[in-house]
Design brief:
Helix 4 packs parallel to helix 5. It contains 14 helices and 10 strands. The mean pLDDT is about 90. The protein has about 300 residues and is of the alpha/beta class. The chain has a single domain, classed as Rossmann fold.
């Protein structure tokens, strides 16, 4: 069956058509997801961390000096309390970094294999679904992060509503999702392969406009938007890494070198400007409950 997407009329994001059932998703994540990561078919940031050795160390060091540093810089500014919940925390790398930088941390990870990667944070990691955690939690947080999670859920509105309930009155939500069907992607996709559409796990396909619309619909106001390196630029410059893992690794190293070679201020300025133009590989947004922000 052809893999395709249909557009959601109200907010404008696209959805996998047909979408999997929840049972199909549960089975996939239990039996296949991490095997696909290990094969290089999914979640390259996690795959490089799972590789172990020098490659994993370099990956985490790069993330801590760029993405994680930049995320915490905004959260520090907006959040009223340094308590952080990371939903879909995976290896726990971001939580570990936040904990070393003064945050009280907790994580939710529905995958048993994913939870096992955060073994040194096990007392603060909950191996359960977002819904189950929301029912048992009994507290709120100064910041909640959903980093590459919302594209994988069947009902993003319900997830956002549960997440909003876990925020302090002046808490801040940080979301990162792929920026799909972007101008750079479409120009790079001359053969109409739509390589970014991946079934059954990548269900929702957002851009900056549709993500902001969705956040507004659940009573959240976007305070800041940014992005990360638009990897499709390599394709447009002649390095077509799609289906070529060795070339992909080379392009990733160049991207990493670029981000580490410029100042934090310049990196943040460039990526914020990219976000305002709708380009960049990810949509990264920080939002608070409407009318609420750090005083």
């Amino acid at each position: 069956m052809e893999t395709k997407v249909t557009r959601v009329p109200i907010h404008g994001y696209s959805v996998l058509d047909p979408s999997p059932t929840q049972d199909e998703l549960d089975k996939y994540y239990k039996e296949q997801y991490f095997a696909n990561i290990n094969k290089g078919d999914r979640a390259p940031e996690i795959a490089r961390q799972l590789a172990g050795g020098e490659e994993a160390e370099e990956e985490v060091e790069w993330l801590e000096k760029t993405l994680y540093l930049d995320l915490l810089a905004v959260l520090d500014k907006l959040a009223d309390e340094h308590s952080l919940l990371d939903i879909g925390c995976g290896t726990g790398a971001f939580l570990k970094y936040a904990a070393r930088n003064g945050w009280t941390t907790a994580g939710v990870e529905p995958s048993e294999q994913g939870t096992s990667m955060s073994s040194d944070l096990e007392n603060n990691i909950y191996n359960m679904s977002i819904a189950d955690f929301a029912k048992m939690c009994g507290r709120t947080f100064g910041a909640v992060t959903l980093l590459n999670v919302l594209e994988h859920v069947l009902n993003p509105v319900a997830v956002l509503e549960m997440t909003t309930d876990l925020l302090n009155p002046r808490g801040v939500l940080c979301i990162r999702v792929p920026n799909d069907f972007s101008a750079f992607q479409m120009h790079a996709d001359k053969e109409r392969r739509r390589w970014w559409i991946t079934a059954p796990d990548h269900i929702n396909y957002f851009n900056f406009y549709s993500l902001k619309s969705l956040l507004r619909s659940v009573g959240l106001e976007v305070k800041y938007a940014t992005t990360d390196f638009p990897m499709e630029m390599f394709i447009l410059m002649g390095d077509n890494y799609i289906g070529n893992p060795a070339l992909g690794a080379s392009c990733h190293k160049k991207r990493r070198n670029f981000e580490l070679s410029i100042s934090d201020k310049l990196r943040r300025t460039v990526y914020h400007s990219f976000a305002e133009s709708g380009v960049g590989r990810s949509c990264i947004m920080f939002a608070t409950k409407s009318g609420e922000e750090k005083k």
